[in-house]
Each structure stands twice: as structure tokens, then as C-alpha cells.
Design a protein that fits this description.
Layout lengths: L7 H5 L3 H14 L5 H15 L3 E5 L2 H11 L7 E4 L6 H8 L3 E4 L22 E5 L10 H4 L7 E3 L7 E2 L2 E2 L6 E5 L13 E5 L2 H10 L21 H10 L3 H22 L21 E4 L3 H10 L29 H9 E4 L6 H17 L1
Length: 367
């Protein structure tokens, strides 16, 4: 069998006519920049997330960047975050001239360990950026105790929740991505900033349009961070299907869990991802194994696509060498980077495909 990491053709097939109609509608009215498509989508996604304000932007990366800009993060500031994430989490901090301060993750959740954050805070700390990695909510409630602005990197977690509430409403600003591989993906790049703070929302709207209000008058320097109208129209078609797709992902994750548990492999050979919150949306299903690289090669030969999120934590990336981190400083993140492997979990996978993946993993690791 050939099993991709994501089958977007299968996902789009049931709504192909609606997607084509969205294309035609935008092409006909010709309002390609912001306009009614973006406004309508922002209203719908705000209701879905459960926030007062949702501002469409050009990518998940730009969502993080403009959120930090709205908090006036800049040179001399420090921002506490996780090293086990996509590069944009740390990169956006550095782009503003601030210093990313990396704190290790929890062993089970892969998310920022709130117990370690206090030691990383100084008088220069401007914000904390937890990441809801792989679709599971980080412990934002515990981070609030520090009294600092929290910017949620929720790029992989639209629709996720915990007992504290919906992701994107737990900090002062939430940042989402609509990259095509996300649970809600557009046909290119797209992103979103959410907030319940009207003043911050207005600041983000101004910053996404080069800092202009009114047009051609600039009190601040922003950027071109606008969500395309065409992408908003596509996302509006797909949004009503998102909860159903989440349920499919959860069902597949539970099926994997059951099949792997039946195999009774040693924990160093195979660990499945814990579901700490019912609201986990499984943007990825990530196992851990001490035979990661060999297993990935074997699965590839069997026609099964996999991915490594992430092979090198941010504190060890060459571009951050001046920060002074060394191997061994953040051991849980470093060990995770050597062991993690994401398996296909998309809702259209089906029982035959899922069992083929699980059986192939089990047979290899049982040898």
C-alpha cells in the first residue's frame, strides 16, 4: 500500500463543487485583498474559537510576528519559549531583535514545562510563547501565574481545548496557521491572530497593513500581513467540516493506541503520545522509539510516509549559536528530537491503511 502523510485530494473531494464555487465567486467580484471574504471568515472563525476578535493574516509565521509586534517586543527584550517547535516560534522573536530564552519541555506532552519557566524569567522578559504542539494544549493556566503576556503558538491546534478553555483564548493573543498540512488548511499560506482585547486587535489590524490608518498615513511601521481573499473563501468552505475531521483523527489515534498496546513492546522501543486533554486534535500522531531512523527507512520502503517533527531543537540551531546553548542543556527536547516519528493520522486513512501502518511498525520493532 501507498500511505501518504496527508491526502488532501480525498479531503477536498466531498466539497469540490463548493471550493470551485468559492474560486468563481472571488474571481467574479474581484476583491482580492481583504474585503467581504476575509471579513466573513474572520467572523466565523472567531465564533468557532470562542474569541471576540479574529484577524486574518498571511501565514502562521506572520501571525506570531505581528502578535509580538503588537506587544512592542523589540531589542533588549527577552521572550521565554520552547526549543521543540517549528523554527518560526524562535525565529520571530529573533527577527524583532529580542532574545529567545529556551526552556525545556515536559516528557509526556512535548509542550513547554511550566515548572521550569520561573527560573528563566528576568526583568527583561516581555512575554511567554507556549506552543500547543501536535494539537494538544499546553498548560497556559500554570504560565499565567507569572503575570506576563502570553502569546499562544497554536499553529497546529485550531479547535483544541483543555479544562482551561479553547486554545487561542488562553493568552492575550493566539496565533494559528492555515498551511495546507494543518487540520484546517488553505491552498497556500494563511494565518490568524485571535484575542479578546479590543485594543490589541485594532493594533494587529493596523500592523498587518503596513501600520497605516487611515490609508497612506503611518503612525507605526507594520508589514504586509494580510490574508488573501481567495484563501479566506476556501477556508470558509472547509471550516464547517473541521470538527468532523478532528473526530476522525481522534478515532485513528485511539485505534493506533489500541493496536500498539496489544503489541506489548518495551517502552524504549515504542511509546505512543499521551492524550492529556479530551480536546487534543492530533495535527500529528507522534510516536517515540530508540530505533527511529531505521524505522523511518523501513516504513518508507513499505510505502508509508512519515515525518520527523523536529530533528534538531531550536537552541542547537546554528543561527542561535550566539545565545550560548550547548548540547545537554535541554535534555528532554534533545532526546525527543532523536526519537520522535509522526505517522499518518488523517481522517480519510481508513481501517486498512491504519492497520497496515501499525502492523508494519510493530513487526519491525518486535524484531
Amino acid at each position: 500500500m501507498k500511505i501518504p502523510m496527508l491526502d488532501v485530494a480525498a479531503q477536498h473531494a466531498p466539497v469540490q463543487d463548493e471550493l470551485r464555487a468559492a474560486f468563481d465567486r472571488v474571481m467574479t467580484h474581484g476583491q482580492f485583498i481583504l474585503g467581504p471574504e476575509v471579513a466573513s471568515f474572520e467572523k466565523a472563525i472567531a465564533a468557532y474559537v470562542g474569541c471576540e476578535h479574529a484577524i486574518g493574516v498571511s501565514s502562521g509565521t506572520d501571525a506570531l510576528l505581528v502578535a509580538l509586534m503588537a506587544l512592542d517586543v523589540g531589542p533588549g527584550d527577552e521572550v521565554v519559549t520552547t526549543p521543540f517547535s517549528f523554527f518560526a516560534t524562535g525565529g520571530c522573536i529573533a527577527r524583532l531583535g529580542a532574545k529567545p530564552v529556551f526552556v525545556d519541555i515536559e516528557e509526556g506532552s512535548f509542550n513547554l514545562d511550566p515548572k521550569l519557566v520561573a527560573a528563566a524569567i528576568t526583568e527583561r522578559t516581555k512575554a511567554i510563547v507556549p506552543v500547543h504542539l501536535f494539537g494538544q494544549s499546553a498548560d497556559v493556566e500554570a504560565l499565567r501565574a507569572h503575570g506576563l503576556p502570553i502569546v499562544e503558538d497554536a499553529a497546529q491546534a485550531l479547535g483544541a481545548s483543555s479544562a482551561a478553555g479553547n486554545v487561542g483564548t488562553l493568552g492575550v493573543l493566539g496565533c494559528f496557521s492555515f498551511f495546507p498540512s494543518k487540520n484546517l488548511g488553505c491552498f497556500g499560506d494563511g494565518g490568524l491572530v485571535t484575542t479578546n482585547d479590543a485594543a490589541l486587535a485594532e493594533k494587529v489590524r493596523i500592523l498587518r497593513a503596513h501600520g497605516s490608518k487611515p490609508k497612506y498615513f503611518h503612525a507605526v511601521v507594520g508589514g504586509n500581513f494580510r490574508l488573501d481573499a481567495l484563501q479566506a473563501a476556501i477556508l470558509s468552505v472547509k471550516l464547517p467540516l473541521l470538527d468532523g475531521w478532528h473526530e476522525g483523527r481522534r478515532a485513528n489515534a485511539e485505534r493506533y493506541d489500541a493496536l500498539f498496546a496489544e503489541a506489548k513492546l518495551p517502552t524504549e522501543r515504542l511509546r505512543t503520545p499521551p492524550r492529556l486533554h479530551e480536546g487534543h486534535v492530533y495535527n500529528q500522531y507522534v510516536i517515540r522509539t530508540d530505533r527511529r531512523d531505521a524505522l523511518q527507512t523501513h516504513l518508507n520502503e513499505a510505502g508509508i510516509a512519515t515525518a520527523i517533527y523536529y530533528p534538531l531543537p531550536l537552541h542547537l540551531q546554528g543561527c542561535f549559536s550566539e545565545l550560548g546553548y550547548a548540547e545537554g542543556d535541554l535534555p528532554i527536547s534533545e532526546r525527543a528530537a532523536k526519537e520522535v516519528l509522526a505517522l499518518p493520522v488523517y481522517p480519510e486513512l481508513g481501517e486498512d491503511g491504519l492497520r497496515y501502518v501499525a502492523d508494519t511498525v510493530i513487526r519491525f520493532l518486535a524484531d
